[in-house]
Amino acid sequence: MSTYERIKTLMVDKRKVPADRIAPHIALEDLGLDSVELSELLFNIEDDFKLKLGDQIPDVTTVADVVAFVDHALAHRVASAKP
Q1: Under the phi-then-psi rule, with left for phi > 0, alpha for psi from -120 to 50, and beta for the rest, what region is 54?
Q2: Fewest CB within 10 A of the end CB: N or C in the chain?
Q3: Cβ-proximal residues to 39 (8 Å cutoff; 6+ apart), any chain
Q4: Does the pLDDT value for residue 61 go beyond 90?
Q5: 26-55 tens-digit pLDDT
Q6: pTM confidence score
Q7: How many domains does the chain have?
Q8: For residue 50, what is the domain's CATH number?
Q9: Whole domain around residue 49: which residue ranges?
């Protein structure tokens, strides 16, 4: 399952966003995700992806931005784990 698909599943299951409204180009605000909801989504992402994203909310505005942020964190985790 891709990062996008996993995040979409989290948005549907944990944040109760209708699946048919989620697409990469859609603004988080248009999905009803304010800064508090985004924080909760990031906690869900940390749990699902086994990541530590930090305490600051990233500057993301679309679903694609969230996917890129998580992909970057995953790549950094893999790079830092190499000897």
Answers
A1: left
A2: C
A3: 57
A4: yes
A5: 999 999 999 999 999 999 999 999 998 887
A6: 0.89
A7: 1
A8: 1.10.1200.10
A9: 3-81
